[in-house]
């Protein structure tokens, strides 16, 4: 263990991916940087782990796909990290057939026609996503620039119908206007609900903000597979930060921040005792609630997480009821389950009324079909595959009375919905760990709150914001009430997803002296 110096230019609280991005940028600029990480490893929620005893498969246990990480950050920091495109965008089973999107355009058109009886929905799909793609190319580059005003971003989008679709009207208005098929409407709406508990017509536009971030990533909206798993990214970031001269100390938990606006002190504790380190700036790669606790200030109420994350290792992919589609195609993209437009509305209403959804909506993809490098030699030789499932409309409140019982019940109901779309039970395909137990684990919002300190189990730390300035002095979207204390986690204005954007923007704020 290396003892910290008495003073640094910047102390970063938390070694998640945003904290590591900030550390790497600041150290490359010649600043003395210290990262304090509570756990015995860096990475936060963007890690690869082997959760099943005796099974050598490195799962992206929490965060699992990459879209919002700008190529600029990868280039600037010289990261040895890559992503791969998925060969199929999505597959949605429907009876004994299904809707296949992506890959060959003619095949996609034919799949829409087989589902709906005409080319109308396919043409509407192409027009709708052509519109969001044009917006993505104009909005995404702004994420690593100073925050534009609302009017400046509107001028950049330069299309009133697209602006209204994304920023003004509940996304359900556009979905119902452009599409007639309940199944197609549901596939479109899911991007507005990942980690966000809302319905299509929520007047708060929470769902629009979520949709926006899901369709602008990389300027294309593509969600890519991290080669080597999500931990490969944070390992590369830690290497870049250390290589630039940053000091990273694990097993060091920050417990207090004191600041006069010019200088700050960060108190920390380790297994061996306590200490204090001084800094000109403190960057907090944690939730707004954690920031308030460190400063001794009243904490904002936590937002509510609303998801079920399930990791599985299989001996083989299951057979589908739809014999026209190979499971290797269906599971390589996003496999939608119980995500028709009406099904999503019903599940939301049930959860809002305090009941577990009877038919929980979820989506699955198989990492190993695109990137088998996460498999150890024995698992690869046996042909093992992984499945990552993300369940929607599972708010934290549903688990409070009986966390384990509710988790088990929701997991079983979710698997039942999957089984209804397969030609064999998923349980027959699960690998077994060294103790003979099936290789499946489920995480609720309460599990994420306990394991990762995400208030309310909210994967974005708090409700997402639109990526424009709400008032004067909000240059980078990372400022706090204290000029030399910045928020560089997912709760920043342009937070959410594995992007590194808040870390980049906090570093830029320090370097240009704007304080947020």
Structure notes:
With about 525 residues, the chain is α/β, with parallel strands linked by helices. Helix content is about 35%, strand content about 20%. The chain has helices at about 15-30, 70-75, 105-115, 120-140, 150-155, 160-170, 170-180, 180-190, 205-215, 230-245, 290-295, 325-330, 340-350, 365-370, 375-380, 405-420, 445-450, 500-510; strands at about 5-15, 35, 50, 60, 85, 90-95, 95-100, 225, 245-250, 255-260, 265-270, 275-285, 305-315, 335, 360-365, 385-395, 440-445, 485. Strands 1, 2, 9, 10, 11, 12 and 18 form a seven-stranded mixed beta sheet that branches. Strands 7-6-14-15-16-13-17 form a seven-stranded mixed beta sheet. The relative contact order is 0.19.
Task: Show the helix and strand layout.
Blueprint lengths: L6 E7 L3 H12 L4 E5 L10 E2 L9 E2 L10 H6 L6 E2 L5 E5 L2 E5 L3 H12 L3 H20 L10 H8 L2 H9 L2 H8 L3 H8 L16 H11 L8 E2 L3 H14 L3 E4 L2 E7 L4 E7 L2 E12 L3 H8 L10 E9 L12 H4 L3 E4 L3 H12 L9 E4 L1 H4 L6 H5 L3 E11 L7 H17 L20 E4 L1 H8 L32 E3 L13 H12 L4
Parallel strand pairs: 1-2, 1-12, 2-9, 6-14, 12-18
Antiparallel strand pairs: 3-4, 5-8, 6-7, 10-11, 11-12, 13-16, 13-17, 14-15, 15-16
Helix pairs in contact: 1-10, 1-18, 3-4, 8-13
């Amino acid at each position: 263990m290396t003892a910290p110096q008495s003073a640094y230019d910047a102390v970063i609280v938390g070694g998640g991916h945003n904290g590591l991005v900030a550390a790497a940028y600041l150290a490359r600029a010649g600043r003395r940087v210290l990262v304090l990480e509570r756990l015995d490893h860096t990475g936060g929620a963007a890690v690869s782990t082997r959760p099943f005893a005796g099974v050598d498969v490195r799962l992206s246990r929490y965060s699992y796909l990459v879209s919002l990480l700008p190529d600029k950050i990868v280039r600037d920091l010289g990261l040895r990290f890559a992503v791969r495109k998925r060969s199929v965008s999505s597959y949605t089973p429907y009876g004994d057939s299904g809707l296949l999107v992506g890959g060959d355009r003619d095949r996609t058109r034919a799949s829409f026609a087989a589902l709906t009886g005409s080319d109308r929905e396919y043409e509407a799909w192409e027009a709708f996503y052509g519109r969001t793609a044009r917006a993505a190319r104009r909005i995404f580059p702004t994420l690593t620039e100073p925050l534009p005003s609302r009017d400046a971003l509107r001028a950049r989008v330069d299309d009133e119908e697209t602006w209204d679709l994304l920023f003004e009207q509940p996304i359900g208005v556009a979905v119902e206007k452009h599409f007639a098929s309940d199944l197609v409407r549901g596939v479109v709406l899911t991007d507005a609900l990942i980690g966000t508990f809302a319905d299509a017509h929520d007047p708060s536009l929470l769902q629009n903000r979520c949709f926006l971030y899901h369709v602008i990533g990389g300027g294309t909206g593509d969600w890519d597979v991290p080669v080597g798993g999500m931990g490969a990214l944070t390992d590369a970031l830690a290497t870049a930060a250390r290589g630039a001269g940053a000091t990273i100390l694990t097993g060091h938990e920050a417990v207090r921040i004191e600041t006069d606006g010019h200088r700050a002190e960060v108190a920390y504790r380790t297994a061996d005792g306590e200490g204090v380190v001084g800094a000109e700036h403190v960057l907090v790669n944690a939730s707004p609630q954690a920031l308030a606790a460190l400063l001794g200030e009243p904490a904002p109420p936590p937002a509510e997480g609303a998801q079920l994350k399930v990791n599985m290792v299989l001996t083989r992919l299951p057979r589908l009821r739809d014999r026209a589609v190979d499971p290797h195609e269906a599971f390589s993209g996003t496999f939608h389950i119980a995500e028709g437009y009406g099904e999503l509305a019903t599940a939301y209403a049930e959860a809002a009324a305090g009941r577990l959804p009877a038919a929980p909506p979820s989506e699955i993809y198989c990492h190993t079909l695109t990137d088998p490098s996460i498999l150890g030699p024995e698992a690869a030789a046996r042909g093992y595959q992984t499945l990552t499932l993300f369940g929607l409309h599972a708010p934290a409140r549903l688990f409070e009375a009986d966390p384990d019982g509710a988790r088990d019940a929701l997991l079983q109901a979710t698997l039942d919905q999957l089984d209804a779309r397969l030609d064999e039970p998923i349980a027959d395909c699960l690998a077994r760990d060294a103790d003979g137990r099936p290789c499946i684990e489920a995480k609720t919002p309460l599990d994420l709150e306990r394991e990762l300190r995400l208030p309310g189990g909210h994967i974005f730390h708090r409700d997402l914001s639109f990526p424009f300035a709400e008032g004067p002095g909000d240059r980078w979207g990372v400022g706090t009430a204290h000029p030399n204390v910045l928020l560089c986690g997912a709760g920043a204005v342009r937070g959410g997803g594995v992007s590194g954007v808040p870390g980049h923007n906090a570093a830029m704020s320090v370097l240009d002296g704007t304080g947020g």
